[in-house]
């Protein structure tokens, strides 16, 4: 039974005012186009403007599936950060555990012109027997550009919701947000590490109507952090992931 596989739900219904509003794909504020440096570190070569991940546990005709939608937007301040245009997206490819679809990437020039990344700049690399990666090379990247990319992953493995969400990266992050929409009869353990109180910590009820079957009640939980400094490697640290803000 579903109940026998459920874990204890530790998140509480806490509401807070969100200090950053996510912009839609391709909608770039004029201030971000004109931005020349990171507001909290003028020496930064690049910065994540907004990163968003959305987990949905949904019912389909083939059973329950985890759907993960990801979107990232990066500002290039200096030519030393042009390597940010070499993207690598990992996924579990053995036995069709995960399906990656709708990969899309583009750059926005300082004048607002949008240049789509063509499919011949996207390659598939087999990392190991069970892990593959999509490699994206973004051409014509220059100082002042904004990189924007998104994709979707789907999995039948519902016992964990993909990988850990890391709010911190090797460059500064203006805003990072993760959201999970889960049926109320599925519960999961949330393990968190953050340097301070979350800037967004919200839970709200939802009514979901699946493509097949009867509607059901769900809960949507969101966490967000703003203005996170880049995490840097230090001596005697085995892995940086142990020190990043994450959930």
Could you characterize what this model shows?
The chain is mostly beta strands. 2% of the residues lie in helices and 43% in strands. It contains 1 helix and 11 strands. The strands form 2 sheets. It has an 8-stranded mixed beta sheet with strand order 5-4-8-2-1-9-11-10, with no helix packed on it. A hairpin with a 5-residue loop joins strand 4 (98-108) and strand 5. The two termini are 27 Å apart. The relative contact order is 0.24.
Give the overall average pLDDT: 85
Q: What's the total count of β strands?
A: 11
Distance between the termini: 27 Å
Helical proportion, percent range: under 10%
- Order of H and E elements: HEEEEEEEEEEE
Report the sheet with the most strands, covering strand number, pairing sense and barrel closure: 8 strands, mixed
Secondary structural class: mainly beta
Strand % is 35-45%
Please describe the topology of this protein.
Blueprint: H1 30-34, E1 46-60, E2 63-76, E3 86-92, E4 98-108, E5 114-116, E6 122-126, E7 131-137, E8 146-155, E9 172-183, E10 200-208, E11 216-228
Parallel strand pairs: 1-9
Antiparallel strand pairs: 1-2, 2-8, 3-7, 4-5, 4-8, 6-7, 9-11, 10-11
Feature tags:
247 residues; mainly beta; eight-stranded mixed beta sheet; three-stranded antiparallel beta sheet; 1 helix; 11 strands; 2% helix; 43% strand; globular
